Amino acid sequence: MQTVASRTPSKVAEPLHDDEIHVWWLDYRREHGRAPLRAVLATYLDAAPEALAFLEGEHGRPALAGPHAGLAFNWSHSGDHALLAIARGIQPGIDLERLRPRPRALDLARRYFCADEVDALAALEPERRDDAFLALWTAKEAVLKATGRGLAFGLDRLQLTVPPAPSRLLRLDGDDATAWQLQSLAAAAGHVASLAWRGPPRRIRLLTGFS
């Protein structure tokens, strides 16, 4: 699996190959709503942003409708930034969180995570635990968003390696964990992000510069 960082000129999307996932780093404000999402997707579809129609799956995952349905995407925003993953032939899941102190990280882990993950977090030095907790949380959310189920599925129904070990899915109830790819992303200073999908490895292109 190869990750390539590049800068793409404003309002121009690079060709999206079938063995790639494009991940866009975007400035975001809540009042923007889906406008940034529409703007980027439209460049891949040679369509006007306002022409794009969305539908929601059974568990609320948004998708493109009609003739644009072949382009899959998932996005996540935290604070003033967002990440948008775009692919064909798979359903990507992505999650972004801003790094911040989590004094109740272990309490939250005991409530939502499986026992082995809690034990691994408890074994870390306190100054490393918050970042590890958020990395684990984003990885779990990315997988669950890729399944289309979301958090309602249950964070304890999947088990992952705990940082500083490389991200890897060890168990996913009702599925083959070895069929999944999980990638930590170096989004930007002060943030942690994860990307997940079911299928073979793909090249990940990290893109910025859209406005």
List the helices and strands and how they pair.
Layout: E1 3-7, E2 20-27, H1 35-45, E3 54-56, E4 62-64, E5 72-78, E6 81-87, E7 93-98, H2 105-112, H3 115-122, H4 126-147, E8 158-160, E9 169-172, E10 180-185, E11 191-198, E12 203-208
Parallel strand pairs: 1-12, 2-12
Antiparallel strand pairs: 2-6, 3-4, 5-6, 7-11, 8-9, 10-11
Please tell me about this protein's structure.
The protein is of the alpha+beta class and 211 residues long. The chain contains four helices and twelve strands. The strands form four sheets. A five-stranded mixed beta sheet has the order 1-12-2-6-5, covered by helices on one side. β8 (158-160) and β9 form a beta hairpin. The radius of gyration is 17 Å and the shape is globular.
